[in-house]
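Subject: Sanity check before I submit

Could someone independently write out the structure tokens for this chain? I want to compare against mine line by line before I put it in a report. The sequence has 265 residues.
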Amino acid sequence: MLSIVIPTMQKNTDVLNKLVKELVEDAIIDEIVIIDNSLKGYKFDSSKVKVIVPKKNLYVNPAWNLGIKNIKNEYFGILNDDILLPKNFCSQVYEFLKNTDNTGLVGLDSTVIHNTPAQEFDTYPENEELRFQPCEYRLYTKYWGSAIFGKKGSYYNIPENIKIWCGDNYLMKMNKDDKKINYEVVGGTIKHLRSLSSCEPVFSKIKEADVYNYAHIDKDFKGHAFYRKRVHFAERIFSIRNSYDQRHKVISFLGIKIKLKKHKN
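---
Independent answer below. Compare away.
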């Protein structure tokens, strides 16, 4: 059987309810763990649905960690709260995981995600035959982490200082380093409202810190635009550079500039 974890801020409960209803009706799923980061509480009339309301907003990746700790099954799926799946989607992924050796995690190829206006969420995507292909680790996972499936043994607890972004990169990298093969789903259609919460400006500093912190784990992430922004911000606090005429050193600290004349040899 399959356990599903869904962190939510309840930005669109209509889509969330449709997703949960679809999952409740799936015979392969016997547990749906909702991590309610909105702190409002969430109710759905089904014995399959378990709601955890933390004391504060945990953000995405710590909510994933908490959800995995609280599931009862060996196989799991972690889903965004802003998607609708083909009704045969989870059963196909579950069969693939059970029958494929040395598997890490299964995520989404970017072609599967279709950004959909909210008014078009009145119907579910049609059932389709899915294909699975190995995916190379890459700097930008894009939509891969919108729906992640695997076995508990392939889930690695994401560091607490990585809260919104880079959790999927971390999971992909850890499985790759453990010589497991990560896959992506190709084919099929998933309706997607696209980042209901994490695109809000209030989260920009957290995402910037996520990239900076993850770059200490994966050095390739120093090429990420948010990492360069973080470094640029640090340079504004303290920097040492040559003046334009090359005759002085300019030391900047918290906006105060001190010009020191260079000694001649």
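---
OP: Matches mine. For the report I'm noting this point. The first strand starts at residue 2 and ends at 8.
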